[in-house]
Amino acid sequence: MNKIAIVGAGPGSADLLTLRALNRLQNAEVLIWTDSLISPEIAELTSKTCEKFATSSLTLEEILALLISKAQQGKRVVRLHDGDPCLYGAISEQIYALAEEGIDVEIIPGISAYQATASELKKELTIPGIVQTIVLSRSGGRTGIPEAEKLENLAKIGASLCLYLSARHVEDVQKTLLTYYPKDTPVAIGYRVTWKDQWLKIVPLNQMAAASRDKGLFRTTLYIISPALKSHDKRSKLYSDEHKHLFRKK
């Protein structure tokens, strides 16, 4: 059976690729990549003989036609997605259509923007006694959101809330969040995190929209709303001398 590698490119920097992702890129005979969201330096990791097809102007049907055609020719095909393909990657419809043609896929994960943002800030998003849950979501926008997952319901939890694809609606997002989070809750705003033109800033929740407007943000932007972004002296019990576990007796 023919197989296509759906590869996560990570947040932007080429040195954040996994070893498996790098291997598939270096051995690819055909690269079909999301050029509007992925750094060109990652696409350049392929061989000089690799055929490259940018997809920013293509429809799903056109992309699928390319994938199917090249796979049926016996080519080693890589479908390169930004971030992690299993998160807002629109891969389920691709997998389904390829399966109908007898083409299998392998999925290679990539580092997501929320992970890269927390790392760049040198912050942990799960602090004992403060917050232990991370929620990944987005504002409704044109494609909508299931009723149970509306921002109001997610905000009630008070978790570390990571919002993708929401910069166009940031005023509405801020207004909703202020109902559930204190106005001084830190918000990390990350634009093209780990790219050469990265912009990253922490602002109070009540300045979230203004900071976004001032920077002119409308795409490739992530928001992390979390009390964990404040300075804390809380510590985990894991390394406490009072904590017994399998490898250390109390």
Automatic annotation (TrEMBL):
<dbReference type="InterPro" id="IPR035996">
    <property type="entry name" value="4pyrrol_Methylase_sf"/>
</dbReference>
<dbReference type="InterPro" id="IPR014777">
    <property type="entry name" value="4pyrrole_Mease_sub1"/>
</dbReference>
<keyword id="KW-0808">Transferase</keyword>
<dbReference type="InterPro" id="IPR006362">
    <property type="entry name" value="Cbl_synth_CobM/CibF"/>
</dbReference>
<dbReference type="InterPro" id="IPR014776">
    <property type="entry name" value="4pyrrole_Mease_sub2"/>
</dbReference>
<comment type="similarity">
    <text>Belongs to the precorrin methyltransferase family.</text>
</comment>
<keyword id="KW-0489">Methyltransferase</keyword>
<dbReference type="InterPro" id="IPR050161">
    <property type="entry name" value="Siro_Cobalamin_biosynth"/>
</dbReference>
<protein>
    <submittedName>
        <fullName>Precorrin-4 methylase</fullName>
    </submittedName>
</protein>
<dbReference type="InterPro" id="IPR003043">
    <property type="entry name" value="Uropor_MeTrfase_CS"/>
</dbReference>
<keyword id="KW-0169">Cobalamin biosynthesis</keyword>
<dbReference type="GO" id="GO:0009236">
    <property type="term" value="P:cobalamin biosynthetic process"/>
</dbReference>
<comment type="pathway">
    <text>Cofactor biosynthesis; adenosylcobalamin biosynthesis.</text>
</comment>
<dbReference type="GO" id="GO:0046026">
    <property type="term" value="F:precorrin-4 C11-methyltransferase activity"/>
</dbReference>
<feature type="domain" description="Tetrapyrrole methylase">
    <location>
        <begin position="3"/>
        <end position="208"/>
    </location>
</feature>
<dbReference type="GO" id="GO:0032259">
    <property type="term" value="P:methylation"/>
</dbReference>
<dbReference type="InterPro" id="IPR000878">
    <property type="entry name" value="4pyrrol_Mease"/>
</dbReference>
<dbReference type="Pfam" id="PF00590">
    <property type="entry name" value="TP_methylase"/>
</dbReference>
<keyword id="KW-0949">S-adenosyl-L-methionine</keyword>
